[in-house]
Amino acid sequence: MTQKTKLRPSFKDAVADIPDGSTIGIAGFAMPGTPFNLLKALMEHGAKRLILVANTTGGAQQPRMPDIGMLVENGQVAKVICAFTAATRPTDVLPFTKYYESGEVDAELVPQGTLAERLRAAGAGIPAFYTPTAVGTELAAGRETRVIDGREYLLEYALKLDYALVRARTADAAGNLRFHRSQRNFNPVMATAAACTLAEIEEPVLPIGGIDPDDVHVPGIYVHRLVQVPAEPEGIWPTKRQERRR
Amino acid sequence: MSEVRGLTRQQMADRVAREFQDGWIVNLGVGIPTMCSNTDIGDCDITYHSENGVIGYGPVAAAGEEDLNLVNAGGQNVTLRPGAAIVHHADSFGVIRGGRIDATVMGAYQVSMTGDFANWKLKGQKGGGIGGAMDLAAGAKRVFIILEHVTRNGVPRLVESCDLPVTARRVVTLVATNCGLFEPTGSGFLLREIAPGLTVDDVRASTGGLLTVSDGLREIDVGATS
After folding, report:
1. Could you tell me the pTM of the whole model?
2. Domain holding B215: CATH number?
3. Per-residue burial over B102-120, b = 16 or more CB atoms within 10 Å of its CB, e = otherwise
């Protein structure tokens, strides 16, 4: 039996069937591992009422890259589940924040580690778990807690995705992924949490078996569509961040 | 009240960094805490952990030598020390909640005398920026806070109880401000070390909540700092 390649001809082709109302994980932490090209394609595709899951909505850094804020500005987003609805520094303003404050877009604010674990749990068949994070804060108000071995824990639920958009350095045509440096971040847990994972790949996609099984970071069983990132200017690549002047 | 200056931002970071012990695993928050990695702490071997799964990062990369796929939690292009390892986000927070972080250093808007602190949401703000702060506060063995002693309007940031939404309760073990080094004691703040040029009365006047003074009160050593 022959394995078929998962390589798609374009980002447009890869996102073409994403329906309105989908829950989509957008991987990445700062620039590394962020699927800029798939985000741009999703913007051009135009699916609406999306629920997006990501660390942050982006846009605080210059130069600005495709980010969730742009999808929001494009009228495609109903809700974002994230660890930041505002920047860490109060002086930085995220483009998303004004849409959230005006009520045009909803948000669920989740501690970063809880977000990662909710995704991991979804991929691992664990419906819920207890964590010490956020106990005693307003996030825990009215929610179920439990004392285990003398410490209070907060109940958190798994977070399943319809789609995950990820970015990796290397892939083989079977969808096995390998990341470079801090590119890994949310990518593996988003891939395992999703019913369908779309991956943009930086290096030329290898033939099936081109990554040694010991070196695979995300098994191809979790990855459904691959797209090769073209060279600039057609493809979008991380750039050096411009330092703020304070 | 006369203007209180005291320590610079780097001197605050230096004072906290000198608490680090050989072999510790440390997570530094964005802003002033990042400056702890500039401090010369001699032969102390510290492993710096970053929320995005980098265990054992080194100094910021030199211009032209950045790897654009390698950042710390503040998004700076850093380097890796020999022996570094990289894990995914869920495993990275497993390191945090699993109790492997010896100390986390964070900035804050307020710290209370019971060791609560607030750093994710301003008064009246909808939403906020939590990031990894709640996980770090709940998971790290020690929570060190660095902050300016008062707000720009002169309002104390060391308070009886936080009126901003807290990040975690009863976790802060040490606080460095431009005025000194403090421990929340439950019923007040213990002043352990004081910034050069300040008096205890200066510090007391700008502290909300009871200030007690350590029997061995010392001036903060700023001579040997970077």
Report:
1. 0.96
2. 3.40.1080.10
3. bbbbbbbbbbbbbbbbbbb
